[in-house]
Design brief:
Two copies of one chain form a homodimer. By secondary structure, chain A is an alpha/beta fold. In chain A, 26% of the residues lie in helices and 27% in strands. In chain A, the strands form three sheets. In chain A, strands 3, 4, 5, 6, 7, 15 and 16 form a seven-stranded mixed beta sheet that branches. A six-stranded parallel beta sheet of chain A has the order 10-9-8-11-12-14, with helices on both faces. Chain A has a two-stranded antiparallel ribbon with strand order 1-2. In chain A, helix 6 links the parallel strand 11 and strand 12. The radius of gyration of chain A is 21 Å and the shape is globular. Chain A starts with a strand and ends with a strand. The A-B interface holds A 55, 62-63, 224, 227-228, 231, 240, 246-249, 252, 258-263, 265-266, 268-279, 282 and B 55, 62-63, 224, 227-228, 231, 240, 246-249, 252, 258-263, 265-266, 268-279, 282. Strand 14 (274-277) of chain A pairs antiparallel with strand 14 (274-277) of chain B.
């Protein structure tokens, strides 16, 4: 029996010029028919909004192709199989894919993975067990290479990746300092997530001074989610042979052109520092191993999943814009 | 029989404020007596002048302690043992040490190494077989990790380290592009040292365009001796998974305070670039192995030693100042 299903989706209406705004998006409707051979009709349960998406809204190529104007915003989502024309998925399966900001979608069978909601809540597959958790895991362990007793500083520490990085660093026996944008976030980091100290950068014109207090032995690893002035302040305290993990530069994404700042190379040279960028996709072959370890930590209580869930499909653009206003704590999701 | 020997030496008279000038130095005389037990009296044959010395003339600690005002400028030198009060050295031995800018010196036996002038000319022990060659060797091979067919760009390419880096890169099967400050230097790089291309940055307001021409496949390794605008231009052409070896930042050393430039972190992130500082001393344990390979290359003609030798003790400050005016080709030495 053929079905015709109404679908709502959010498309890129125009490319942001600097700061992203509601007007860059448009909610449109379409009708979906039966899935073709090998295709699956899914209904979204959770949709992820992530800072990296801002880069894809520009016209130039980054490590992934830019979104096209007029097309749906692609991104991580989880949901339920409504109708399957594939041998690999059945109606009722809970799946993870990248169909993005839409209520329903027809997707190819090889773009989905089945998830087991009994092992962890479905939403965790977009957070601690998804690309967010994997980003924290590979960035800290592969690039940062932490040793017991080292001092790890994380910026954007209350964000989706940062909150996991700090916890993994703690599990590795490091001293962990977070930088975040509110007293409430700092309290969460210190009281709930086991950070040794947290600094609210909004209370300090320059975080260098409070950082010096809580990093008496300097900084061995800096996990950078934000870039800009905050990062400069951390890097001035960098130790010999330190590692700077470039994970995100959220302070820069909404800038129309490349910002200027201090030339850090002399400092990196004198202290023999490694500064390295990475992208989680480069570690695809190790995902399974990493997810197993993350799930262990999660289920044993060593790792806490922080999620900030907004309800309502039409709230997606606001949830996304909020990422750049420092509103979210932990992984920002939209429940459909 | 006791001896009294006149010694001339060059001391740091005042710390440079920005650009280093002749007035920062003073030639003084002293009398040297017999060496104590375990000490050796040496007579300088060659004295090395190196860009890193500029950093030691500042008051703040870098990776080595600052020079003290009123004291002799320490640095690499070779010479002949005149009188020995040590079992380990005999009169007539040719030795390498760090007694610096003086005609004669009394030094501790454990601060000297004997060199074999039959294996390579004495001056090579300050150049291709000395810290210069070792710096090129470890920076390129350990941090840069070149693969056959990759494109390596070297700034300060006609300088002491740069000229060796390019040659080692060629030996490793890389495509090598040098950036230097005169047509004469570029000709030397291309015609004599086997660089695939060389760019005279003084003929171009921005080296990006000529670089794009000679690096059609982008840049896989950037060996940075200079910093500043030239480095920015190279880094804009950086490939995915490239390595930036921070060896020197000579354009910055004479600046009174930290310069500003484009924030490169987003670029490093997108392209998963590693930018890493290093100092040759960190590889001390591998010096012997490296010197043996460098000597092999030198003696088999794969590696050419470039030296610029100025004669006369009193010429040392001018030779040093000339390093920052881009005057030297290859290793700058002063023959005493």
């Amino acid at each position: 029996m053929a079905i015709i299903m109404k679908n709502r989706k959010i498309i890129l209406k125009s490319r942001p010029a600097g700061q992203v705004v509601q007007e860059n998006f448009e909610l449109t409707e379409e009708e979906l028919g039966d899935p073709d051979k090998g295709d699956i009709l899914v209904k979204s349960n959770y949709v992820s909004v992530d800072p990296y998406m801002r880069n894809r809204m520009n016209s130039f190529k980054s490590y992934v192709a830019p979104y096209k104007v007029g097309q749906v915003i692609e991104g991580d989502a989880t949901g339920c199989v409504i109708r399957s024309n594939s041998d690999r998925f059945r109606e009722g399966d809970i799946v993870h894919g990248s169909w993005g900001w839409q209520e329903n979608a027809i997707v190819k069978e090889n773009s989905l993975t089945r998830i087991n909601p009994d092992m962890a809540p479905e939403s965790a597959y977009l957070g601690v067990l998804g690309l967010t958790g994997l980003t924290a895991y590979f960035g800290l362990l592969e690039i940062g290479q932490p040793s017991v007793g080292e001092t790890v500083v994380v910026s954007g520490a209350a964000g989706s990746t940062g909150s996991i990085v700090g916890q993994i660093a703690r599990i590795q026996g490091c001293r962990v300092v977070g930088i975040a944008g509110s007293d409430q976030k700092c309290k969460l980091l210190e009281k709930k997530l086991g950070f040794d100290a947290a600094i609210n950068y909004k209370s300090h014109p320059n975080v260098r001074k409070p950082l010096m207090k809580v990093c008496p032995d300097g900084v061995d690893i800096y996990f950078d989610n934000v870039g800009g002035d905050i990062s400069d302040s951390v890097i001035y305290l960098i130790n010999n042979f330190a590692r700077i993990v470039l994970c995100g530069q959220i302070s820069q994404y909404n800038q129309a052109r490349m910002a200027t700042g201090p030339r850090l190379q002399s400092l990196l040279l004198i202290h023999r520092v490694k500064m390295q960028g990475f992208i989680v996709f480069d570690y695809r072959e190790k995902y399974d191993e990493a997810m197993a370890r993350l799930a262990d930590w999660l289920n044993s209580g060593l790792l806490t999943s922080q999620e900030n869930i907004i309800r309502g499909f039409e709230q997606i653009p606001a949830a996304f814009i909020g990422l750049f206003e420092g509103e979210n704590i932990g992984k920002q999701l939209v429940r459909i």
